[in-house]
Specification:
Blueprint (H helix, E strand, L loop, with lengths): L5 E5 L3 H11 L4 E5 L2 H9 L6 E4 L8 H9 L9 E5 L4 H10 L3 E4 L4 H21 L1
Parallel strand pairs: 1-2, 1-3, 3-4, 4-5
Helix pairs in contact: 2-3
Length: about 130
């Protein structure tokens, strides 16, 4: 049996964390963090997920700052990151893609949409390793 891919899910909303985790946990190992700081602590302590799903609107350290800090960790440079957010403006989405985010998933989403997007991100990342 193959090991489940690890997804680090970062969101300050307990409801969104539980909902998204339940949508993904049949297919993936889902690790959660309730803040950007908590996520960074897990990552610094050698957690290397296959994918990071990151909320933008969080207290203390928002998703933008968390994204930049994660991209500064060389071990995590190739880990795909998707923003999962209720921020739906075109300006924010453009900013996210200019920063280098791999996907921008708008809340609310269906389970099938989330699973398909996660699968695509993981496939794209797997293919990147074969091409290098």
């Amino acid at each position: 049996m193959t090991e489940k891919k690890k997804i680090l899910l970062v969101d300050d909303s307990e409801v969104d964390l539980l909902s998204t985790k339940s949508m993904l946990s049949k297919e993936y190992e889902v690790i959660t963090a309730k803040s950007g700081k908590e996520a960074l602590n897990q990552l610094i302590n050698k957690l290397v997920p296959d994918l990071l799903l990151l909320d933008i609107l969080m207290p203390e350290m928002d998703g933008w700052e968390t994204f930049n800090k994660i991209k500064g960790i060389s071990l995590l440079r190739d880990v795909p990151i998707a923003f999962v957010t209720s921020v739906t403006g075109a300006t924010e989405e453009t900013r996210a893609f200019k920063m280098g985010v791999d996907d921008y998933i708008k809340k609310p989403y269906t389970q099938s949409e989330l699973l398909e997007r996660v699968k695509t991100l993981l496939e794209k990342n797997r293919n990147k390793f074969y091409l290098n």
